[in-house]
Write a structure and sequence with these properties.
The protein is of the alpha+beta class and 248 residues long. It has two domains: 14-118, Alpha-Beta Plaits, CATH 3.30.70; 152-228, Archaeosine Trna-guanine Transglycosylase, Chain: A, domain 4 (Roll). It is built from seven helices and twelve strands. It has a six-stranded antiparallel β-sheet. It has a six-stranded mixed β-sheet with strand order 8-12-11-10-7-9.
């Protein structure tokens, strides 16, 4: 997230994260006992952040989507976890140990996915350093391969494509009316975070849907603009009374 794309930070930070975690049990348990205990942690859970954390230590609801044991040898358990943003895996290991009655702690943790971004897309700091050095010497192709388009970060969001005549109004923070919509995802519900894009696929803004996609024929405001990414003036301005929207 560079430049104006830093405005996507909050939207991305809350997306599900995937981890591979190595947990060490403080006693011996059978595999079935371990699997039964893990099943108790799938779904919504209450979790109090650990003492060494950057947030207030009060119970919070977090979601564990998946827990899968990859290897189980002696007292070491390697498992994969898909969890909502803000979930502490070291606290999950601690609580799992309490449920088993033997105690447990986290030994190692590796994040393998954050929202739509996977570990396969990562580059090392050394590669990045070399790419920046090449860029400063006049060769920018390497660095361009590393910098991803912001559209990729919000690929998981339902999309609303807008007419060119409505783009600049949204860039000024105006809500998006149904009259300015060209196409949209059918899986949109009221309150959903959606990506507002041009017909070329360029990301204009993020916003909250006011109504369901099934109710779009009612007209009115469809998206309240929240975060604007595109610069004003990128598209010709047709608002401020110079353009009247057509019904779709």
């Amino acid at each position: 997230m560079l430049g104006r794309a830093t405005r996507l930070t909050q939207a991305i930070a809350g997306q599900p994260k995937e981890y591979v975690c190595l947990m060490r049990l403080h006693g011996d348990v059978k595999r079935e006992e371990l699997l039964d205990a893990l099943r108790e942690f799938v779904g919504e859970i209450y979790q109090t952040p650990p003492i060494r954390s950057r947030v207030a230590r009060r119970p919070r609801v977090r979601v564990v989507y998946e827990l899968e044991v990859l290897e189980f040898e002696g007292r070491d358990v390697l498992f994969k976890a898909l969890v909502s943003g803000g979930t502490y895996l070291r606290k999950l290991c601690h609580d799992l140990g309490l449920l088993l009655g033997i105690g447990a702690h986290m030994v190692e943790l590796r994040r393998t996915r954050s929202g739509p971004v996977t570990e396969d897309q990562a580059v090392s700091l050394l590669e990045l350093f070399a790419a920046v050095k090449a860029y400063r010497e006049g060769e920018g192709r390497w660095l361009e391969e590393f910098v991803r388009n912001p559209e990729e970060l919000v690929s998981y969001l339902p999309k609303v494509e807008v007419l060119d005549t409505a783009v600049d109004a949204v860039c000024h923070g105006a809500p998006l009316a149904v009259a300015g919509i060209a196409r949209l995802s059918r899986r949109i519900e009221p309150g959903d975070l959606v990506a507002v894009q041009t017909l070329k696929g360029e990301l204009v803004a993020l916003g909250r849907a006011e109504k369901s996609a099934l109710d779009v024929e009612e007209g009115g405001i469809f998206v309240n603009t929240d975060v604007v990414l595109m610069e004003r003036g990128t598209y010709q301005s047709y608002w401020k009374g110079r353009w009247r929207p057509q019904e779709i």
